[in-house]
Predict the structure.
Amino acid sequence: MNTPQLDNVIPKPASVLDKARIYRDKFKAWVNLDSSNLTAGQQLAVKYFTVAVILFVAQILFGLLSALQFIYPGFLYGILDFNVNRMVHINAMIVWMLYGFIGSIYWLIEDESGTEIVGLKWANIAFWVLTGAVTLVVLVYLFVQVGPGKDSSLWFINEGREYIEAPRWADLGITAVMLVFFYNVVATFSKGNWSGIAGVLVLDLIALVGLYLAGMFYMTNITHDQYWWWWVIHLWVEATWEVLVGVIMAWSLMKLLGVRRKIVQTWLYIEVALMFGSGILGLGHHYFWIGMPEYWLSVGGFFSALEPIPLVAMVVHAIYDSGVHAFKTVNHPALAWVIAHAFGNFFGAGVWGFMHTLPQINLYTHGTQWSASHGHLSFFGAYATINIAFFYLAIQQWRGNVWMAAGTRHAWRWKWALGLLNAGVVGMTVALLIAGYEQSFIERAVEGSTWAGYFAAQNQPSFQHAMNWRMFFGLVTAAGLGLLVWDLLTIGKYEERKAEKVVEKVIVH
Amino acid sequence: MIEPVALKDFFITFFSSALIILAGAAYALLFAWSKINSHTGIKIGALAAYAVLVASVLELTRAAQFQGYWLIISVAMVIGYFFAPIGIWHLCVKTHGHPDDTSIKTKIQEDEQ
């Protein structure tokens, strides 16, 4: 064997690391971001935002693979199966949104409390522990999912609960990290100033951590298991996450539009009352078909009918504000994404949710592509949009609080990213709606939920065409995401104008 | 007990459900707009949107075969969607009132002059 020749072919680890460092330095020089513009808490926040964007890319990538497997079922079969791709697609989405929320809270906490973050060292350690754990869990998802299921599988491979499949060791790690996060938040506000926003945030974090525990214990009865599992899924998404977004929005509206604190805090309390009032028992619409008592049909139906009320409140308030206040912003992309949030939340959660939530029709639609259609638009509209808006707020400060409104260089990038991402998600939603309608009609209503009915629905031309269109719009979404990442890395790079301080003004009629 | 939607009423059930939320939002939007713009057409538009909402609720009640206490949902939607925007408008007016507004208004008037 000729060793010198092999040395030429296989690069030494040291040289690989050197090359990686050179590329990293070149990349840093290209993006040209100055972290001295950020406080310590904001520097930690942008670490969370960075991982969030990477996971967003992973979500779209694995979503595209899953979409392709609907069209070509043999694609990557036995190598990267559909169940794995779908699991990574959904888990990446949940985790990138959590990263976005945690980053947003670390971003605003120093400003809101008027003091530095308490326990920053622990917060940084928690970030690296969480990121290491997420990486390991994804690797296990990708490479260790085939084999016999044992008790140890729950601890090390996969807990088996849809959307929260992370093995139990990771569950415990996530809980520990969230407790560190909770300590940072409470201790910082205790050292600095408490506010209405701070109070709502702390109470919401208690619920957020507490509810996660409901999805961690093993139960032999599938009805019991599903009962507690929905506590995590529904009460996170339709209660605690909504309130968390309310907190982030409240602070953002003060910074973006100069809205007075008293107003945003009062409306935060009203929103919490409306969200919890309708959202908590709205849980009932998940209990229709899992073996729960019959009264859940009425409870779920009634409170689901109430759930759009906060969205109606939002419409009235938006008109009131547009008529009475002259708002001016120094960050157009962030404001555009906040507006996309309002529309996405209304249509995704409100219209798409109520269309199939009453038990009389949900009997046929639950678990079909109809649910996927609702899920795509509501998660994007309610949560992805607000995180992206916050990324733009962060990048503005990272660049030295530069002007990002009228006359921004290369503004077409954020506008096209906004357009492509929204068009892509709406296109996928409509395609999945058609597929879901056909599936609930053929598979459920006509064929009576049999296996034969399942395959009959999957083989219908309208279902298959819908899946092709979903793939197409998935690619449109991916193009939008590519443009968004490019824009986030470059927007404001050559801007020298500083952003003005935003104050609220009242229109005199 | 529920009576599942009949096969022939699939589409109308989805459509009327969606229309309830859309008409509810349109009514809320036009109602709020009529408060800051006294044009009569906007008020008529708000009432028309509400009429669409009531028709949609009636159609959903028929298609989804609501009976007995399920009719409470229909009544709650008809009454709730009518009064919610009114209540929320009053909340907006009350919560936005601030003594500083006078000075802000004066300042804008000065700027405009």
